[in-house]
Amino acid sequence: MPEIELRDGAKLYYEESGTGKPILFVHGVWMSSRFFHKQLPYFAEDYHAIAIDLRGHGQSSKTENGHTIAQYAKDLHECIEKLELTDVTLVGWSMGAFVIWEYFHQFGENNIRASVVVDELASDFKWNDFEIGAFDIEALTGLMRDMQTNQRALLEGFLPLMFKEALPAAELNWMLEETTKVPASIASAILFDQSIIDCRPYLPHITVPTLLCFGKEEKLIPMAAGEHLLEQLPYARLQIFENSCHCPFLEESEGFNHVVDQYLQSL
C-alpha cells in the first residue's frame, strides 16, 4: 500500500498513476481519495495524477492530533516534498479548497502551477458580514452532536445532499464505507475547524491561476459562493456544471475532466 510517512509519524495513503506534470487531488471533509476514481485514469494519460487521503481519512493514519486545516496544509506540503513534485496543479474539492488556500498562506505559491477549486465557499461559517456561509453555530453544533451519537445515520442523510439526482444503492454504499472509516472523534474535530476557518483574507493575494468548478444545484453550496470567489481571486475563471450539485467530478465526470484538462492546456 503506497504511503508517505510524515515527520510526526503519521502515514498518508495515496494513489498515483501516469507521468508528466503532477496534478494532485485533495478531498473534502470525511471523504477520501476514492472519490476521485473517475479522474485518476483520465489524467494519467497526460499527467502524473495523484490523490491522497488526508490524515484521519480513508486509509491514512487515524492520529489523535492534527485535525485542523493548518495541519492538513502542512501535511500537503510535506507530501509534495517527499514525492519530489514540481510545477504542481492542486485540485481541492470542498474542504480540500481550504487546505489549498491555507497551503498558499503558509508556504506561498512557489512550485504551484495552478489550482482548481470544486464547490466551496471562502468560509463555511455564517459570519456577520458573510451571509452566504453554510453553517451558523446552532447548525454546526447540531452536526457535531449527531456525528457523536449516530455517525452512520448522519452520513446517510448527508451524502445524498451532495448530488443532484438520487444515488443508486451501490454508490451510496461505497461512499458510506469510505466516510465511516473516519472515527467520530476525528470527524467532529475536523468538521469544527474546517467550518470556522475564514479564508477571505487570503484570496486577494493568490496569484496562481484558478479554475472554479461549481454545480448549479444548490443543496449545499450556493452559486453565490463561486461568484464571490471569482470577484476576490485575481486570476480566476468560473465554470458552472448544469447537471451537478456538490460533486461535478462524479456527476459530470467526462465534462469535468475535459474542462480541467483544457484549462491546464491553456496556461
Automatic annotation (TrEMBL):
Keywords assigned: Hydrolase
InterPro entries found in the cross-reference section: AB_hydrolase_1, AB_hydrolase_fold, AB_hydrolase_sf
Highest taxon in the source lineage: Bacteria
Coiled coil regions, renumbered to chain: none
Domain AB hydrolase-1: 21-131
GO terms, molecular function: hydrolase activity
Protein name: Alpha/beta fold hydrolase
